[in-house]
Amino acid sequence: MDSYAKIRCKESILAIVGPTAAGKSDLALILAERLKAEIVSADSMQIYRHMDIGTAKPSKEARATIPHHFIDILEPDETYSAGQFAREAHALIADKRAENVPIVIVGGTGLYIKALEKGLVELPPIPESIQVRLWESYVNEGLASLYHRLQLVDPATARGVHPNDRFRILRALGVFDATGIPLSTFRARHGFRETTVRLLKVGLTYPREILYKRIEDRVDRMMRNGWREEVEGLLEMGYDETLKPLQAIGYKQLIQVLKGRMSLETAIDEIKKETRRLAKRQITWFKKEAPDYWIDPYEHGLERATDNILTLLQRGDRSWTRKKA
Q1: pTM for the full model?
Q2: Taking CA atoms, which of 40, 154, 178, 311 is between 20 and 30 Å from 300?
């Protein structure tokens, strides 16, 4: 029996989703301890080694206590995709199911969750020459210019993509440049009707002002914990600043500081602003993807939320969908 067949069963796999700084990892650790489970990280940045502080990885102590998967699996100059994650996570889940080991999925990379649950649109490969050309256009012309072009060649995709969402803008333009066919056409053919894994998706939600305060506090804490030194170490290891992981929020700004192009105060302000924007995009994504169950840890607390989630998971009752704890 192949991996996909093994996991086509009634039991739901618990997935904790939501915006950055919402406390997903804390809740996942509590749940994993209660369930005697292992954790699958669905975070497109935590896959990279040497990038611990700025990606908010769980502590080494936590990872030593509860096995974590898909953390520290690549060097920053290696590439990875949502499709690879889905395939490898499928295989892992099948193996753990065979061993009767529960899994808790946790992360804010919505495309990873969607790829695992519903499959991905089958797209032709984008030649490296096109990827390089688009990246150079981004660096030299800025994202606004590329977004405007996307609005012209694929307005349906552009309507569903935030103007600051660099990854999806570049991907959509890459598909169009490689094939002459808009990404929206490929998506319409797929329909995302396939369910390859049944997830019980729990979304974390906060009042907007509380979430923003959590973001600002976390950025300050990361700086105190040595984020600047972490970035300096990456450059000393020889990693080029143009690598996509090093263009991520925080890493990009701190490189500018280390290169003498930006003050530290300006960089910290920009990191907080860009992280707030990321959180807004994630909230929009997960509202569209409709988690089965929303909880507000600020209002109810993690322990009560944990008890409610475990009760629902044990009961297997789908009638409670889209409710709050």
Answers
A1: 0.78
A2: 40
